[in-house]
Amino acid sequence: MDLSGKKALLICVETGKGFSCSDSLQELEDLCGTLEIVVYDKLIQRRDRPDPVFFVGSGKLQKIAETVKTGEVELIIVDDELTPVQHRNLEEQLKCLVMDRTQVILEIFARHATTAEGKLQVELARLTYELPRLRGKGLFLSNPGGGVGTRGPGETILELDRRKIKDRIAHLKRELKKLTLNRANVRKARLESGYPIVSIVGYTNAGKSTLLKRLAREEGILVSSKLFSTLNPATRRVKMPGGRVFLFSDTVGFIRKLPHTLIEAFKSTLEEVLFADLLIVLVDASDPLYNDKLKATLNVLEEIKALEKPRMVVFNKIDQIPIERMEMLKLEHPDALFISAKTGQGIPELLRSVEKFVLSTEPCVTVKINVTMLAELEKFRELATITQIGSNESSETLRFRICGPESVVKKLKSYFEGGHETDGAENLA
């Protein structure tokens, strides 16, 4: 759908719960900016709950209709998810294209999906959203593609459209299941590699991709101020201060009212965080609504059952705030870390803290190693923390303390204490 340049009127109902309408509409305006929609005006109505028929009351509806008649507005965007009834009634009453917050987010995801899996996930989310809203000639229907079939005896065009969408949804789920199995195999290989995994999560535009780029010292990672510029997890090797290598990954940005259809469609992607040893919850320190957005992030983690994972809160963009604000944040969040992914400030402290936490959770063993194997031992310093302890046991052996993931520690102990026939060094490196 080409929305570029279209003038939109944004509408919000102020119920006194959650984000204020002024803040929420500002976020919606940012979302519209990502789609190059021009915001003509914003309208707020205060009421206990949205009207079940038209979302807004009759007086506000009349005012909106008068604005549409002037020709200055081509699009109405509601800052909530409309019910199919509300959506239909608004379009029929206003004779104008109506979108809700969910559709805007889905449209952004559709534009930013680049991988085969991402495109399938977005299409599944869109069709799941559109199916109950399909009516007449399919006013809300995007291009579902594939699996069209033919109309059966006595089957209306609407029934045919619904059947086509249901068939397409079933096909998408089958294709995603195949890709999920492939993702599981990749994940299994990553877990078996023995490298600790750290996932960077946070509200959209908190700077996750910028942080990953800084940590990995790479130029090839997309960094954008546009919302939801990252849909597919990117994983990079990062050399830690002690010489070990950890795997860091960023994820799709979270947002308030992240559509449930998207959470379901992207479940296999979001669930990557379940397999992390540690979560970095990144927060934009310059955002006045940082606390509400932190809560929204934790709500999504709870929905994907990742709230119990070990996590550390990290405030980003401290280069954009005065020292007084940072001192206030430190008082409110004494356990948090403070960084600027853009300038590099605080990054060494972050890496040391991550390394210290992960190492504190790892098992250790003491191993006697023949001096002829010392060169071989050096190959594994990326995978484990290796420290010589005590003096020489003899002229032929030395004692080492080896700490690391349980699978790695067991294999190294077996390998260096004579079990060379087990997995071999090449399967550990």
TrEMBL record:
<keyword id="KW-0547">Nucleotide-binding</keyword>
<dbReference type="GO" id="GO:0005525">
    <property type="term" value="F:GTP binding"/>
</dbReference>
<dbReference type="InterPro" id="IPR032305">
    <property type="entry name" value="GTP-bd_M"/>
</dbReference>
<comment type="similarity">
    <text>Belongs to the TRAFAC class OBG-HflX-like GTPase superfamily. HflX GTPase family.</text>
</comment>
<dbReference type="GO" id="GO:0046872">
    <property type="term" value="F:metal ion binding"/>
</dbReference>
<dbReference type="Pfam" id="PF13167">
    <property type="entry name" value="GTP-bdg_N"/>
</dbReference>
<keyword id="KW-0175">Coiled coil</keyword>
<dbReference type="Pfam" id="PF16360">
    <property type="entry name" value="GTP-bdg_M"/>
</dbReference>
<comment type="subunit">
    <text>Monomer. Associates with the 50S ribosomal subunit.</text>
</comment>
<feature type="binding site">
    <location>
        <position position="230"/>
    </location>
    <ligand>
        <name>Mg(2+)</name>
    </ligand>
</feature>
<feature type="binding site">
    <location>
        <begin position="202"/>
        <end position="209"/>
    </location>
    <ligand>
        <name>GTP</name>
    </ligand>
</feature>
<dbReference type="InterPro" id="IPR016496">
    <property type="entry name" value="GTPase_HflX"/>
</dbReference>
<feature type="domain" description="Hflx-type G">
    <location>
        <begin position="196"/>
        <end position="362"/>
    </location>
</feature>
<feature type="coiled-coil region">
    <location>
        <begin position="162"/>
        <end position="189"/>
    </location>
</feature>
<keyword id="KW-0963">Cytoplasm</keyword>
<feature type="binding site">
    <location>
        <begin position="340"/>
        <end position="342"/>
    </location>
    <ligand>
        <name>GTP</name>
    </ligand>
</feature>
<keyword id="KW-0342">GTP-binding</keyword>
<feature type="binding site">
    <location>
        <position position="209"/>
    </location>
    <ligand>
        <name>Mg(2+)</name>
    </ligand>
</feature>
<dbReference type="InterPro" id="IPR042108">
    <property type="entry name" value="GTPase_HflX_N_sf"/>
</dbReference>
<protein>
    <recommendedName>
        <fullName>GTPase HflX</fullName>
    </recommendedName>
</protein>
<dbReference type="InterPro" id="IPR027417">
    <property type="entry name" value="P-loop_NTPase"/>
</dbReference>
<feature type="binding site">
    <location>
        <begin position="250"/>
        <end position="253"/>
    </location>
    <ligand>
        <name>GTP</name>
    </ligand>
</feature>
<dbReference type="GO" id="GO:0003924">
    <property type="term" value="F:GTPase activity"/>
</dbReference>
<dbReference type="Pfam" id="PF01926">
    <property type="entry name" value="MMR_HSR1"/>
</dbReference>
<dbReference type="InterPro" id="IPR025121">
    <property type="entry name" value="GTPase_HflX_N"/>
</dbReference>
<feature type="binding site">
    <location>
        <begin position="316"/>
        <end position="319"/>
    </location>
    <ligand>
        <name>GTP</name>
    </ligand>
</feature>
<dbReference type="GO" id="GO:0005737">
    <property type="term" value="C:cytoplasm"/>
</dbReference>
<dbReference type="GO" id="GO:0043022">
    <property type="term" value="F:ribosome binding"/>
</dbReference>
<dbReference type="InterPro" id="IPR006073">
    <property type="entry name" value="GTP-bd"/>
</dbReference>
<dbReference type="InterPro" id="IPR005225">
    <property type="entry name" value="Small_GTP-bd"/>
</dbReference>
<keyword id="KW-0479">Metal-binding</keyword>
<keyword id="KW-0460">Magnesium</keyword>
<dbReference type="InterPro" id="IPR030394">
    <property type="entry name" value="G_HFLX_dom"/>
</dbReference>
<comment type="function">
    <text>GTPase that associates with the 50S ribosomal subunit and may have a role during protein synthesis or ribosome biogenesis.</text>
</comment>
